[in-house]
Structure formats: C-alpha cells, structure tokens
Amino acid sequence: MIAETTVAAPRRGLRPARFGPLVALVVLLALPYWNLTIPGVFETAINKPGTLQLLALCLVFGSLATGYDLLFGRTGMLSFGHALYFAAGVYGTDILVTKAGYPLWEAALLAVLGTAVLALALGAIALRTNGIAFAMVTLAFAQVGAITIGRNPGGVTGGEEGLPMDTAGVPDALVGVSNTVNLYWLAVLVAVVTVVVVHSIAAAPAGRVLSAIRDDERRVGVLGLDPYGYRLFAFTVAGALAGLAGVTYALLIGGATPHVAASDQTLTLLVMVVLGGPGTRWGPLIGGMLFTYLDYRLVAFGNSEAVDSLPSVLGGPLSQPLFVLGTLFILAVYFFPGGLAGLRTRLGPLSRMLPSRR
After folding, report:
1. Cβ contacts of residue 93 below 8 Å, gap of 6+?
2. In this structure, what are the phi and psi dihedrals at residue 22, rounded to the nearest 5 degrees?
3. How many Cβ atoms sit within 10 Å of the Cβ of residue 350?
4. CA 176 to chain centre
5. Rounded to an integer, what distance in angstroms lies between the CA atom of residue 281 and that of residue 123?
6. Tell me: the pLDDT tens digits for 307-356?
7. C-alpha 1: how far from its chain's center?
8. N or C: which terminus of the chain carries fewer CB neighbours within 10 A?
C-alpha cells in the first residue's frame, strides 16, 4: 500500500490544468495555420486577415487589462487615468516614426521607456494621495493628456483626425493586409511578455508586499516597509506595460486616434478586469479579450437582419452594443461576483454533487 501511494502521488501532481497555459499558447500560435470557419463566431476563416486582426486586438486589450490589474487587483489602486499611458505608447510610437523619422524598433523602445518615465513622474505626484483623491488626480492627468492630443500642438498629434503612421519606417513584414499574421504573432508576444512580467512580480516578495498594501497599507508601514515606494513601482511597471500595448495597437490600426486617450478607455479597462476577476492569474487577460471580442462583434450583430426583424421594443436596445455589453456585465457580476476566473470555484460544489463515473 505504501508503494502504491508513493507512485500515485506524482500522478496526481501532473494535472492537465498545469499544462493549460502552454496548450493555450500553442493553440494561439497555430491559429494562423487553421483554415477553419466558425459560423456566428467569426465572419471569415480563422486564418484570414480580418479574423486575425480581431484576435490581435483582443490580445492587445487583454494585455492592457492584465497590466492594469497590477494596479487595481493586486495593489488596490483605483486609477481613472491609465488610458494616458496607453495613449503615450500609441502616439509616442507614431510620432517618432512619422514625424521624427525613427525606425520602428527604436521608436517602440523609446516610446515604452518614455511612457515608463511619464508614469514614474506622474505617479510620484498622484501617489501622495489615496482612495478617491488618487482616482481623481489620475483622471485629471489623463484629461490633460486627452486635451493636449485634441489640440494638436505643433501639428504632431493630428488633432481630432488622428495621425496615420508613415510606413516608410516600418519593416515590410509588418505592413499590408497580407502581413496581418505577423502583427498577430507580435500581439501574442506582447501578451506573453505582459503576463510573465505581472506573474513574476506577483510571485516575488514585492508581489506579496503589494498584496499586503491592498489589504492593509497601515500594517505594511508598521512593519517598517515603505508602501509609497512599492506603489510607485507598481504604477511605473503598469504604465510601461500599457505603453508596450500601445505600440502594438498603433501598428495594428496603422496610426493613432484620439479615442485611445479618452477617459472612458480606463473605465473600459476596469470593466474588463472586473469581468475576468481582479487579482486572479488569468482573469484580466480573459476578461479583456472577451470584452474586446464582444465589443467588435456586437456591432455586426446589431446591424444584422435578425435584429432588424425584431419589434422596435427589442430591436432598438439590441442594436446598441453598449446596451448588450452592459446587460451582460451586470449579469456576470451578479451571478459570478469573483469574475470569470472564479467560475471554476463556484461550480466546484455543483460538480461534486453530480454522480461520478466509475
């Protein structure tokens, strides 16, 4: 019996769930090779440029939500201005390539570093406050950034019309519809980097301090640690990750548009994180990808013949993507308050009640 127990223990450790992230990554990398059509889910086959671009956008916003969760879910900081750093990555890359003539990779590196410095400088000011005051200060900074972009100082931002990217400084492998697959793989890489950075911080001693700050900041101070320094570190890293997502987004849409700096962009990030599960391992990534997918697909659904044929009482609301998204979000929060990441835990008791197969 002892020998049987010794042999069985490692088998229990080799659970399929441990290989889930690796399997998911392999599937994501292999999608461009699948000429598979899923009616009702995607308009074209999976390996077509339109579908790959949608999936790439889902990965970009999933990465953005994962970085934002480092602030909100893991450190307990409610920022209403995170869109500023996303916009800094988008516009920084575009301006350096289009206006300054930098090659793409140099522009991307400078944009991410510049975004990190911006987050460090503004975070050093905003983190002198807490709670609602902190949220309002971050919102004020973001509004200043949005107004500056809209006013087009020196003609560098393009104002309300945005700024198309000059492809002369972009490698040929990332230009054109036929190279959408390369942009998709770039989005996969950015998602992997973001997840690795956030999870590495969460698993490190600094991550445990951040969790302690979220639960009781005063106790962390009593223990002799500096909450301000740790919060500033999380704020800066989250800003840099937002800038990295912004670089990829600028390449995907071929430039920069003012809506990336709008205040509702941060509110959307908050919805993504809450939908997926704040402070969880994969929740923000899943929530960001799912929300982005629904945001784009519900536009086509609202203009479909099925909705047009409904009575105006139903067809009117269903034709508005925000109405459908809001309804789904309310239902998700009501039935799954811990987010989609907590779905397995909530369904655990139900699965144990079902008769097991021998």
Report:
1. 104, 107, 108, 111, 165, 246, 247, 250, 251
2. -65, -40
3. 8
4. 25
5. 25
6. 666 677 666 766 677 777 778 778 877 777 777 877 766 655 544 544 54
7. 50
8. C
State how far the Cα of 160 lies from the Cα of 358, in Å rounded to an integer: 64
Task: Measure Cα distances from 81 to 147, 203, 255, 272, 290 in Å.
Answer: 13, 26, 21, 15, 22
Tokens of 138: 């971050």
233-260: per-residue pLDDT in tens? 999 999 999 999 999 999 999 999 999 9
Instruction: Give residue 131's region: left, alpha or beta (phi > 0; psi -120 to 50).
Output: left
What's the pLDDT band for 358 if we cut at 50, 70, 90? very low
Alpha-carbon gap, residue 321 to 298, rounded angstroms: 5
pLDDT for residue 263 = 81
Arithmetic mean of pLDDT, 177-196: 95
Q: How many residues in the chain?
A: 358
129 near 77, Cβ under 8 Å?
A: no
Q: How many CA atoms lie within 13 A of 237 on its CB side?
A: 27
CB neighbours of residue 283 within 10 Å: 26
In single-letter form, the type of residue at position 271 comes to: V
- Split at pLDDT 50, 70, 90, the class of 7 is very low
Angle at 331 between CA 330 and CA 337, to 5 degrees: 85
* Mean pLDDT across 220-237: 93
How far, in Å, CA of 311 to CA of 102, rounded? 55
Pick the range with the lowest mean pLDDT from 9-13, 66-70, 125-129, 236-240: 9-13
For residues 275 and 291, is the Cβ–Cβ distance under 8 A? yes
The token pair that represents 73 in the structure block = 């879910």
